[in-house]
Amino acid sequence: MELNSIVEYLDNKSILVTGATGFLAKLFVEKLLRVQPNLKQLFLLIRASDSASVTQRFHSEVIEKEAFRVLKTKHGVGFNSFLSEKVTPIAGDVTLENLGIRDPELTRKLWSEVDFVANFAATTNFNERYDVAFDTNIVGAKNVLEFCMKCVNLKLLLYVSTAYVWGEKSGFLLENPLRKGETLNGTTSPKLDSQIEMKLISQKLQELKDEQVSYKEETTAMKEFGLRRASLFGWPNTYVFTKAMGEIEIGELIESRNDHPVVILRPNMITSTFKEPFPGWIEGIRTIDSVILAGGKGKIKCFLGRAGLIMDLIPGDMVVNAAMAMVGHANQPSDNRQPIIYQVGSSARSPFEYIKLRCYLYNYFSKNPLISSPTSKHKGKPIQVSYPYVFPTTASFFTFLYITHMLPLKGLRLVNSLLCDYFRDKCNDAERKITFIMKLVKFYEPYILFEGIFADSNTERLRASVRGNAAEEYTFYFDPKCINWDEYFMNTHIPGLVKYALKY
After folding, report:
1. Of residues 65, 164, 243, 444, which has the active-site annotation?
2. Cβ within 8 Å of residue 35, ≥6 positions away
3. 243 is catalytic
4. Are the C-beta atoms of 332 and 475 separated by less than 8 Å?
5. How do residues 214-257 score in pLDDT, each as one tens digit?
6. Average pLDDT, integer, range 483-498
7. Is 422 an annotated catalytic residue?
8. Which residues pair with 454 in a beta bridge?
9. Which residue in the list 239, 342, 364, 444 is annotated as catalytic?
10. Between the chain's N and C termini, which has fewer beta carbons within 10 Å?
């Protein structure tokens, strides 16, 4: 691949970004505006009902975030005028036809002007309602592509997926597309088909309506339904199941009637920024962060894992740099009937051994203890942490949990019943702690015990093309070989978590 200047290529281009309030999308928008202020227009699709709501969300959930601190400093007093000139927030919804944009004049403007579309819109909740995940991750993916087909000057659609569409497969996982009807466990009956799944969702919702269940009961039922459907075909949760079907939908549409390049970006577990806009920025708690912060709060003294297992991590700014490098496809000859897939991670070239996490957790929080909440029983005192035990299998972990937590809780409940609920609060606290630990294990077991390595041949060729431009090699870095995991966790990621994501 031959890639000239990314910055120059973005000059005077119009870009539409969906899911603009998400973590990755914010980093993408910030970097675009920082490295190429001569963009023609940046359209940000934000789920909102009207112009007032979209403006409010744009400012409170995008621009006011710490990630834009460097950009604000760069423009100083002219920041707001720069934004008003270059950025247009749009009220819409990817789950609706024409992205839910109500203004026909604006729709026509987008169709005539947009050069690139970056689809970040997704629900990433592992345990989302099946209907919600289906609408956003599958219907939304299809709607964005169909919108792109009406854009007369479109040069590229970038669709952000996840490398874990491969579920719990082991071995070397290639940058290959998923095919219609393909399942991870080889199941052919019932057939995996998004149209069938849509009908099943409608039937399930109607059944629940007929039963007159509460909204809370409906939500629980739809979450369980999604997990059952995912498991039936070999995926561990609703999120990766629906993202996989979203990829399949895109592949089908491209094969039948697309004439624009489409690239699929499959990032692995995304962590805080490595360098830009500054080290350690993160929003929300992502994957392993739940374990790190729970350990720092003294809530867990053991976790699942074993020596030799590799966890695939990649800082958010590296994912964004890879995404921006993909604009090179707009000038490349390609088979438009096949999406080009990039798996952006670290397992193939800079593997991170998961077992090291307990060392980072203990060493960091021993020297920098969290302070307990003033409303807790410890009332503002430093939280002591212990070196966590690690269990190599789920069975050994749950045996330990049963002996050390569940059996004592049974005894405490018995005493509590004899003493007229005297230890009720202690029982409730213990039960919440056990439930929390079991939930962590349930959701993250497929990733903690994952035995796959993600191939990144396409991504490596993309890195090589960026390295070919000496002026931009360090602007669009995304080679995980430059990461020293010890330094990154101890000096960047965990401090960033504590500063930006910690909530008691």
Report:
1. 243
2. 7, 10, 475
3. yes
4. no
5. 999 999 999 999 999 999 999 999 999 999 999 999 998 887 76
6. 97
7. no
8. 173
9. 239
10. C
